[in-house]
Amino acid sequence: MAGRLAVIGAGLMGSGIAQVAAQAGWQVTMRDVDDAAIARGTAGIRASLDKFVAKQKLSAEDADAAYGRLATTTDLGDAVAEADIVVEAVFEQVEIKQRVFSELDRLCKDTAVLATNTSAIPITTIASVTNRPESVVGTHFFSPVPMMALVELVRGYQTSDATMATAKAFSEEIGKTVVVVNKDIAGFVTTRLICALVMEATRLVENGVISAEDLDTACRLGFGHAMGPLATTDLTGVDVLVHATENIWADTKDGKFTPPESLLRMVAAGHLGRKSGQGFYSYE
């Protein structure tokens, strides 16, 4: 199936998607708004490939071949003109994603599948700005993409069976295990579950019921989680989790998706988890 892929956004998610597709034999064009963003993305891909080589999980020849299948540009039209599949991986804000998809609708060939890497925004909302909602699908990858096996494939209200089949085949070809979400609900399945768990976990800590450390230990040893929910929040980014939860609340008005005050204060204070050095835990 390997063909031409365009990835819109060269951040952590976009560069990871570009890398695994290039490793699987796809010709990949990665696009971002400026050269600095592209340089960071390509440097990340090179470093990730080199780590796989150092750990003997990939040969140096295969790593170089994958890197050789990667092209970059700041021109959206150039990136998507010949693409069979386009994966958008820009900031998790509905207005930004809609702006991108409005342009993709204008610039992509008629047969292209248009995928969004959103973790919480309804696919139908993003597809609504296009004249081809049947071609729009959710492909929710997990970070870091080269290491995480899962893709959550989400059907929008008008997504066609053919689009779903193409997106599933693509995801599996680049080495991912696919779970299919048949209804376009806010937060889909995985984000909805982690947000609900983190909000309740935060309330328990906020109310003095249990410490963050003991709560995470309970989830690891009691439920077999690889990481507790609060350590996961620090890894993902406290602000990212809050933003995703607020997106779900905006769509559902379900009280369990109301972020606790302590979580909002953490974000206001810049305690965003590992990336800031402080979250539920200290990383100084």
What would you say about this model in short?
By secondary structure, the protein is an alpha/beta fold.
Placed side by side, the strands forming the largest sheet appear as 3-2-1-4-5-6-7-8
SSE ordering: EHEHHEHEHEHEEHEHHHHH
Fraction of residues in helix: 40-55%
Major sheet: size, sense and barrel closure?
8 strands, mixed
Q: What is the strand content?
A: 5-15%
Secondary-structure class:
alpha/beta
The rough form would be described as globular
Question: What is the number of helical segments per DSSP (H or I, 4+ residues)?
Answer: 12
Radius of gyration: 19 Å
Total number of β-strand segments? 8
Low-pLDDT segments: none
Beginning-to-end CA distance, first to last residue: 46 Å
Mean pLDDT over the residues? 96
Model description:
It is a single chain. The protein is of the alpha/beta class. It contains 12 helices and 8 strands. It has an 8-stranded mixed beta sheet, sandwiched between helices. α1 crosses α2, α1 (12-23) packs across α3 and α2 (35-54) packs antiparallel against α3 (60-68). The model has no long low-confidence stretch (mean pLDDT 96).
